[in-house]
Amino acid sequence: MTDAAAASAPETSPGGAGLRLLMLAAPAAAPGPIGPIARLLARGLEEHGCEVAILDWGSDGSGQSGVRRALDRLGDVLRARRAMRGGHFDAVLVHSSHDWGTLVRDLGLLGTCRRRPAALLQLHGSSPQRFGARGSRLFTAFSRTLVRRLDGLLVLSSEERKGWQQMADSVPVSVVANPYLPRAGAAGRTGGPGDPVRLLFVGRLVPKKGASLLLEAAAALPSGSVEVVVVGDGPDRARLEELAGRLGAAVTFTGRLARDSVDAAYREAHIFVLPSSWDEGFPTVISEAMDFGLPIVTTRIRGMVDHLEDGVNALLVTPGSLDELVGALERLVADGALREAMGRANHAAVRKFEPASVASQYLDALIAAHALRSDHSATG
Questions:
Q1: Burial readout 268-302 (b: 16 or more C-beta within 10 A, e: otherwise)
Q2: The pTM is what?
Q3: How many other CB atoms are there within 10 angstroms of residue 345's CB atom?
Q4: Plot region of 284 (φ>0 → left; ψ -120 to 50 → alpha; else → beta)
């Protein structure tokens, strides 16, 4: 990987190997998974012979004021446009999300920049279900305008692709997977016979992540049969702590933890639970739970449906259904053999997300977008 401002290469037409890519992604140190995911993807693409330069795109999470943040985002756009116009790249891949702030920023980059390489946008979670809904007319219009400036759109689930294809016209919409690098020796849990079954939740504490539903489900199970560990922080924490006290559930709130401590929480758990209804594609915490050999209970949405086989890798439940969640937990708590079988299946299956493996999906989309851009240039 090279610094984007200094990257240059001979003018060659890429077939795959030799493709020159500018990647715009969150800084490596920024909170959230996008920065690390982008850098793992760059590693995988380089293994396929691509040349990749990464330019920071977005906040590093340092708590800037509104004015400072706006000025920094404008600076991001100007730097990216200079790099794109330099003629050194065959394609630009923008890692983004799907909200008002990112829509305005990404349109600022792509909306008026005519002389540029093939442009692809990867959405790390999106909301196509809002298109055409009451109160979302302007959001829909901005989304349509952005996608029409693209040569390719990448999403993380078949569900999202179906929603975006309705407005993408001739723009290809591809489903890709986020890369994940399995950690050596990740699998393995502690705990002995007769101990409570430990249910682990890892994520930001916001209502749509479903931690409150997990607490209610745990309280509905036989007393003393389970304990819950909630790793993470967020605006919903105080409400969750009050709920846990009111329900009398055995819950430990750890707050945010360093990487080694998060790994320890995975090793000490028996079941990973994420009853999310969030507009995400395939959360990194699911890959982590697979890596640590944990059976999973999660919702029947997005990338979970694409990558997890019900009854093999996970028990899938309807978002918001307390009854289904209680039933899935009852089944796994009572069946140690099923937990072990699911854990083994997940530890093996997580290898399909290794960077070099998933990079081939991206490479196909990048080559197609470059060809589309070349065709447009030739006919324009």
A1: ebbbbbbbbbbbbbbbbbbbbbbbbbbbbbbbbbb
A2: 0.89
A3: 19
A4: alpha
Which tokens in the block code for residue 255? 């707050």
Q: Looking at the domain assignment, is residue 189 inside a domain?
A: no
**Residues 161, 18 share a domain:** yes
Instruction: State pLDDT tens for residues 13-51.
Output: 445 668 999 999 999 888 888 999 999 999 999 999 999
**pLDDT number for residue 9:** 39
- Give the CA diameter of the chain: 72
Any domain includes 192: no
Residue 217 near residue 250 (C-beta atoms within 8 A): no
* Residue-averaged pLDDT of the chain: 89
Classify residue 123 as left (phi > 0), alpha (psi -120 to 50) or beta: beta
Name the token pair of 168: 């993408």
Give the pLDDT confidence score for residue 20 in this predicted structure.
Answer: 95
> CA–CA separation, 96 vs 72, rounded Å?
16
Number of domains, the chain: 2
Q: In this structure, is residue 364 part of a structural domain? A: yes
User: What one-letter code names the amino acid at 341?
Assistant: A
| 200 contacts 269 by C-beta, under 8 angstroms | yes
In whole angstroms, what is the distance from residue 168 CA to residue 161 CA?
Answer: 10
**Under 8 Å between Cβ of 137 and 97:** no
Q: Which residues contact 236 (CB under 8 A, 6 or more apart)?
A: 205, 206, 207, 209, 211, 212
Strand partners, 297: 273, 315
By CB atoms closer than 10 A (0-12, 13-18, 19+), residue 338 is middle
Neighbours of 17 (CB within 10 A): 10
92-115: buried (b, 16+ CB within 10 Å) or exposed (e) per residue? bbbbbbbeeebbebbbbbbeebee
Beta bridge partners of 123: 96
Quote the domain boundaries for residue 275: 197-353
For residues 247 and 186, what is the distance between their CA atoms, to the nearest angstrom? 33
* Tens-place pLDDT, residues 315-353: 999 999 999 999 999 999 999 999 999 999 999 999 999
